[in-house]
Design brief:
The complex is a heterodimer of chains A (109) and B (114). Chain A is mainly beta. Chain A has no helices and 11 strands. Chain B is mainly β and 114 residues long. In chain B, strands 2, 4, 5, 6, 9, 10 and 11 form a 7-stranded mixed sheet that branches. Chain B has a 4-stranded antiparallel sheet with strand order 1-3-8-7, with no helix packed on it. Classes of the chains: A mainly beta (109), B mainly beta (114).
């Protein structure tokens, strides 16, 4: 059974700061790793889908890396904006989707 | 193009009752999965439906059952409700069951069991 951990649980940054958070997992026994952004009062939205042989993914100011050997994925946000405030979920797809508990990001103007 | 829609948005039930939650997938999607999200946790996989059959199931008791209709919409049924079933129930759809297909989520049904 996959176990997905995310850290930190929450963080507050100032507008313009760059930040990153971690998704960690004990083994690479999965097919794909997904990142989702979940804004308050909205639905989770997919950011990236990363396969085991995938490279870094980038979408605007947000990028993600995957290191299956060391068992982690990083999500980076460059120049955080208030609209980046959300919970960021990591999910691994093995037999089915296993989600981490999320990192709650608050960007202060 | 409507995304994933869920109904109702909120529901209050008492212990022992039964509940049915509904989900319509995004247009063009044939795979629907259900998740339970308790406070402070990530969504937990309940089951996945494809071609009107349950394809995968998470670690949930038989009180949780589902159905997928020919139009790909889906229902989640929970019998003999417990206080611990209080949670946000999310429905997600995808184009196929492939592992690299991203999920599209609905806004969820907030279930409160008193």
């Amino acid at each position: 059974i996959l176990n997905v951990e995310q850290s930190p649980q929450s963080l507050h940054v100032q507008e313009g700061d760059s930040t990153n958070f971690t998704c960690s997992f004990p083994s690479s026994n999965f097919y794909a790793l997904h990142w989702y952004r979940w804004e308050t009062a909205k639905s989770p939205e997919a950011l990236f889908v990363m396969t085991l042989n995938g490279d870094e993914k980038k979408k605007g100011r947000i990028s993600a890396t995957l290191n299956t050997k060391e068992g982690y994925s990083y999500l980076y946000i460059k120049g955080s904006q208030p609209e980046d405030s959300a919970t960021y979920l990591c999910a691994l797809y093995g037999q089915n989707f296993v989600f981490g508990p999320g990192t709650r990001l608050s960007v202060l103007p | 193009d409507a995304g994933v829609t869920q109904s109702p948005t909120h529901l209050i039930k008492t212990r022992g009752q039964q509940v049915t939650l509904r989900c319509s997938p995004k247009s063009g999607h044939d795979t629907v999965s259900w998740y339970q999200q308790a406070l402070g946790q990530g969504p937990q996989f309940i089951f996945q439906y494809y071609e009107e059959e349950e394809r995968q199931r998470g670690n949930f008791p038989d009180r949780f059952s589902g159905h997928q209709f020919p139009n790909y919409s889906s229902e989640l049924n929970v019998n003999a409700l417990l206080l611990g079933d209080s949670a946000l129930y999310l429905c997600a759809s995808s184009e196929t069951v492939a592992t690299n297909e991203k999920l599209f989520f609905g806004s969820g049904t907030q279930l409160s069991v008193l």
